[in-house]
Amino acid sequence: MSEELKRTPLADHHKALGGKMVPFAGWEMPVQYPTGILAEHKAVRTGTGIFDVSHMGEFEVTGPDRNAFVNRVTTNDVGALDAGGVQYSAILSPEGTFVDDCTVYRFDDRLMIVVNASNRAKAWEHIVDQKQAGGANIRLRDISDDTGLLAVQGPKAEAMLQPLASFPLSSIGYYRCATGKLAGVGCFISRTGYTGEDGFEVYCRWKDTVALWEACSLAGATPIGLGARDSLRLEMGYALYGQEIDETITPLEAGLAWIVKLDKGAPFTGLPALKAQKERGVTRKTVGFKLEGRGIPRHGYPVWFGGKQVDQVRSGGQSPSLGYAIGTTMLPAHAAKIGTKFEVECRGERLPAEVVRRPFYTGGSVKKGA
Amino acid sequence: MANVPDNLLYTADHEYVKRGAAPGIVTIGVTDYAQGELGDVVFVNLPKPGEKFSAHQAFGTIEAVKAVSDLFSPVAGEVVEVNAALDADPAVVNRSPYEEGWMIRLKVDNPADVDALLTPAAYRTQIGA
Questions:
Q1: Cβ of B65 and A294 within 8 Å?
Q2: Which has the closest alpha carbon to B21: B32, B30, B34, B8?
Q3: ipTM above 0.90, yes or no
């Protein structure tokens, strides 16, 4: 803990805006600004929010074997991506559990893997090991320290960003990316995010991050901290590493089978374990729940089913959009169905909960499909 | 800067005590500083009238989006009223901690206990205000 926290190019800006800075994955990051998490949450659901997520890690893969190599270290099918395509994916251990979840970007001449800040060193090591084991003709570069990342999210994100853009943003489809300029800053922009709203993630040079942030702020985007980032993603049921997914959980258990292409024809790390698990069937599954009793479920609270503690609350909180408490946990596979009743122990009191469909919040502006 | 009204008494746990509702009855809530530190309050769990608490005993919990905190009784006494409005609108604690955002009214066992609480000046010193 004595280690000095890393700072994004915007750390001083966050402080000047009144951001409450907290340590997060080794970084000094704003958890909220003075208007508070609920107001920030609402700003993203109804307008446009801007998030500094420059702490995320980015790895670049170049060289003739790049596509085959990334197909071997990630679970989704890189072969299904053309240049300009983006996909949600995972990096697994030999046991089929999560080393990290990640996003893979495919460009003409390279690929980029975006990993969690908390897992950057571990994921990097894992990927380097794979290169040494497999002898691929590729070049790997950790470009995190030179890459700034801003997420601009909300139903009005495109309209707000368009005047700053050098090309029509409407040309970028869902989970597609394009290279261009925003406010004169060279960047690449993908229609991706972690909020359930339409919007973009914008990658730029580290030194350009402040200029880009200022242009977006001037255009009317509300600064959003990590608190609302978490409440927004929870309402969508999106996984957060360390909560819904970790080194003890497989994608099949986490309900993320869709990012694992067992039959893509590339032997990725964890494939044999997952095939075996699929054959056996999983014994537990991630579910979303609504708390029926009065309380707030929090990460780590015990979860009871059939008289036994079966898991803990993975993520939980009051949903600002829905006005009730929601969360995620894991239940025995046979019980992991919509409508199953169980109990969450909130501060010593067992409160009734019920499995509900995810996403919890379905009113978002995210544009799926082409 | 957190507001610390001069007409109240305080605890190191960031509760305030207001006298004057009736003889021997005090109103208890959390300070402006506390609500600012907690952030948006989303849930307040309060006791029922008739329940008794000793000094420093937890009488309830306050939950913000990112934080949970116990509420400690500043002095010994019996709950005579709770602020039911917090159920429907817990955020009133953020908007009006000293007025509409009060939490419980306590019939104090020993009125002299109240005199021993922190003065506004002492509380200001504690929070660096």
A1: no
A2: B8
A3: no
A291 touching chain B per CB within 8 A:
no
Q: Measure the CA–CA gap between A66 and A213, rounded to whole angstroms.
A: 32
Distance, CA of A340 to CA of B78 (rounded, Å): 40
Please state which architecture CATH assigns to domain A283-360: Beta Barrel (2.40)
Domain CATH code at residue B86: 2.40.50.100
A295 Cβ under 8 Å from any chain B Cβ: yes
* Local structure of residue A342 (DSSP, 8 states): E
Peptide bond into B90 cis (omega under 30): no
Residue of B nearest to A323 (CA): B42
Q: Do B42 and A318 touch (CB under 8 A)?
A: yes
pLDDT tens across A182-239, in order? 999 999 999 999 999 999 999 999 999 999 999 999 999 999 999 999 999 999 999 9
pLDDT digit string, tens, across residues A90-101: 999 999 999 999
The CATH number given to A6-52+145-235 is 3.30.1360.120
What gap in Å lies between CA A163 and CA A41, rounded to an integer?
Answer: 24
Query: What's the whole-model pTM score?
Result: 0.94
